[in-house]
Design goal:
- This protein is 72% helix and 8% strand.
- It is built from six helices and three strands.
- The chain has a three-stranded antiparallel sheet with strand order 1-2-3.
- With 169 residues, it is mostly helical.
- The longest helix has 50 residues, at 12-61.
Length: 169
C-alpha cells in the first residue's frame, strides 16, 4: 500500500489516466449490458400492460372466464413487479457506473492523506480498502512466495505493473 500511495503522490496524472482507462473499459462493458437489460425490461413491462388491457377486455366481452382472468392478471402483475424492481436496480447500477470517475478523484484525495503511512490502522483500512485476496503460497522456486491482491474502495484493483512502467521509465 505504501508503494501505491507514494506512486499516487508522485505520478497523480498518470495514475488518473491509467485508472480512468481501466475503469472505462470495465464500465463500458457493464454499462452496455445493464442498458440492454433495462431496455428489454422496459419493453416487457410495456408489453405486459398491453396484455393486461387485452385480457381485461376479453374478460369483459366474455371471451375469457373470470378464473382464467384472475390467474393471468396475477401472473402478469407478479412479472411486472419483478421487472420494475430489476429496472430500478439497473438504473441505479448505471448511475453508479457513470459516476466512476468521481470515485478516482475521491480515492486520490484519500490516498494523499495516507502517503508515508507506516502502520495500517483499522480506520485507514476501512477507508482505502474494499477487500484483500491472498493467493495460495508458491514454493516452486525454493522460496515461499505469496501474492496479495488488494481491491481498493471505489476503484477496484490497481494495475501495479502498468504503474511501475512509468516509475522505471
Amino acid at each position: 500500500m505504501q508503494l501505491v500511495m507514494g506512486y499516487i503522490l508522485r505520478y497523480e496524472d498518470h495514475f488518473r489516466s491509467v485508472m480512468e482507462s481501466q475503469l472505462r473499459v470495465e464500465s463500458a462493458e457493464k454499462l452496455k449490458i445493464s442498458k440492454g437489460r433495462l431496455e428489454r425490461n422496459e419493453k416487457r413491462i410495456a408489453e405486459l400492460k398491453r396484455l393486461f388491457i387485452k385480457i381485461y377486455e376479453d374478460n369483459a366481452r366474455g371471451k375469457l372466464n373470470d378464473e382464467r382472468f384472475d390467474m393471468l392478471s396475477q401472473s402478469y402483475e407478479t412479472e411486472q413487479k419483478q421487472l420494475e424492481a430489476e429496472a430500478t436496480q439497473l438504473q441505479q447500477e448505471i448511475e453508479v457506473q457513470q459516476r466512476q470517475n468521481e470515485s478516482i478523484e475521491k480515492f486520490i484525495q484519500k490516498a494523499k492523506g495516507y502517503v508515508g503511512i507506516e502502520k495500517l490502522d483499522p480506520y485507514a483500512l476501512r477507508e482505502l480498502v474494499q477487500s484483500i485476496y491472498v493467493d495460495a503460497p508458491d514454493k516452486s522456486g525454493g522460496k515461499r512466495r505469496q501474492h496479495i491482491h488488494i481491491k481498493y474502495d471505489g476503484i477496484g484493483f490497481i494495475p501495479l505493473n502498468e504503474l511501475m512502467q512509468k516509475e522505471t521509465a
